[in-house]
């Protein structure tokens, strides 16, 4: 297809969010990278041929057979893509080439740009598109797996938002929001990392580490064959949001504020990312077993129902409490503050320590939830 037609398609994919190309890697800053980028733009404007670009198309499962059964020509394919909702399209491979094409077109126009080979991968499952994206990047130096997964997971994130009736909102990294998020708001990139944590059952992922990313890919590919993982993750995010909201109802009065400094407000517990990572990793380990162990999928639904029952009971206890003192009897934030501040770690290790601390805390919550009437045992689990 022509470069102009492809760029119009790309702009359609993203115009609802930003009108540009959000989700892409930022322009590289090094002198060498700038020279290479400028050379690529110049080559494209002179008609250089590019490797195929890959666009994912997500269709409803009930319409998959009907929509794919009549694809006999390029025109049929383009008609299908043109009729798909914007949120159902994703660039799977070719983000940087697309950027270069866009820059070349703005600087030199489309006259000298060669036609492009564009592959459309159609699926009724976001997991399958994710798998294809992971395969395409295996063996390459990854540019930013969290950012790339944010782009490919956009349809899934919107599906999760819709499934919880708008009570949770995911914000793109490009929206500029970094602080002041409510209990029902998450940055999309954080949600993607939580999904990686959930599927790999590891509380800490060094996304800049090539070897670590390769192992994450293997775990993700294995997990993506089980569609239920996505459903459990969606429900896990909803549980986390409900717990966060319940904690946020606590505000210390004068008596408690003398002993509570860091956690004088319940919303401070989940404000940072490590407690969320600890919650999600602990839940994943409880449901699916430790990393490397084989999951008993038949036992997972019963385990998850038990988690929801026990957690909802504690959440109800927080919400029915009418005074800060009564809420503190359930939350036990004085114990949390005392325990977490008693461990002095280097500033560079605080995030790692807190992930481990909260993973053990919430691990106790899931393992012993039927016996718990407050969170005291959780905070003493480390």
Description:
With 382 residues, the chain is mainly α. It folds into two domains: 1-124, no CATH class; 136-382, no CATH class. Helices cover 57% and strands 6% of the residues. It has 18 helices and five strands. It has helices spanning 3-14, 31-45, 64-68, 74-83, 95-108, 126-137, 145-152, 154-163, 188-200, 210-224, 228-248, 254-257, 273-288, 300-320, 324-331, 333-342, 350-367, 376-379; strands at 53-58, 89-93, 118-123, 169-171, 185-187. The chain has a three-stranded mixed β-sheet with strand order 2-1-3, with helices on both faces. The protein is elongated.
Q: What descriptors fit this protein?
A:
382 residues; mainly alpha; two-stranded parallel sheet; 57% helix; 6% strand
List the helices and strands and how they pair.
Blueprint: H1 3-14, H2 31-45, E1 53-58, H3 64-68, H4 74-83, E2 89-93, H5 95-108, E3 118-123, H6 126-137, H7 145-152, H8 154-163, E4 169-171, E5 185-187, H9 188-200, H10 210-224, H11 228-248, H12 254-257, H13 273-288, H14 300-320, H15 324-331, H16 333-342, H17 350-367, H18 376-379
Parallel strand pairs: 1-3, 4-5
Antiparallel strand pairs: 1-2
Helix pairs in contact: 1-5, 2-5, 6-10, 7-9, 9-13, 11-14, 13-17, 14-15
């Amino acid at each position: 297809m022509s470069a102009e037609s492809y760029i119009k398609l790309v702009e359609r994919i993203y115009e609802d969010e930003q009108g540009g190309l959000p989700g892409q890697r930022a322009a590289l800053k090094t002198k060498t990278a700038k020279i290479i980028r400028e050379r690529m733009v110049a080559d494209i404007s002179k008609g250089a041929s590019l490797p195929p670009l890959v666009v994912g198309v997500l269709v409803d499962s009930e319409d998959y057979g009907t929509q794919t059964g009549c694809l006999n020509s390029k025109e049929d394919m383009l008609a299908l893509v043109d009729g798909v909702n914007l949120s159902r399209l994703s660039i799977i491979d070719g983000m940087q080439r697309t950027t270069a094409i866009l820059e070349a077109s703005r600087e030199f126009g489309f006259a000298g740009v060669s036609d492009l080979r564009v592959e459309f991968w159609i699926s009724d499952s976001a997991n399958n598109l994710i798998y294809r994206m992971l395969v395409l990047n295996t063996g390459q130096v990854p540019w930013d797996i969290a950012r790339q997964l944010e782009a490919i997971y956009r349809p899934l994130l919107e599906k999760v938002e819709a499934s919880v009736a708008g009570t949770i909102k995911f914000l793109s990294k490009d929206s500029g929001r970094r602080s002041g998020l409510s209990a029902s708001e998450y940055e999309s990139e954080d949600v993607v990392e939580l999904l990686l944590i959930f599927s790999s059952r590891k509380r800490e992922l060094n996304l800049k580490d090539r070897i670590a990313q390769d192992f994450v890919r293997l775990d993700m590919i294995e997990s993506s064959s089980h569609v239920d993982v996505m459903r459990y993750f969606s429900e896990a995010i909803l549980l986390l949001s409900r717990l966060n909201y319940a904690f946020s109802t606590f505000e210390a009065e004068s008596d408690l504020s003398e002993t509570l400094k860091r956690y004088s407000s319940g919303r401070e517990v989940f404000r940072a990312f490590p407690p969320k990572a600890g919650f999600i990793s602990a839940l994943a380990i409880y449901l699916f077993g430790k990393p490397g162990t084989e999951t008993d999928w038949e036992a997972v639904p019963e385990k998850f129902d038990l988690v929801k029952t026990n957690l909802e009971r504690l959440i109800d206890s927080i919400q029915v409490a009418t005074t800060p003192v009564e809420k503190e009897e359930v939350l036990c934030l004085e114990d949390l503050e005392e325990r977490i501040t008693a461990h002095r770690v280097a500033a560079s290790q605080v995030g790692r320590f807190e992930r481990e601390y909260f993973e053990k805390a919430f691990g106790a919550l899931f393992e012993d939830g039927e016996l718990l009437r407050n969170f005291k045992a959780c905070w003493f689990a480390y």
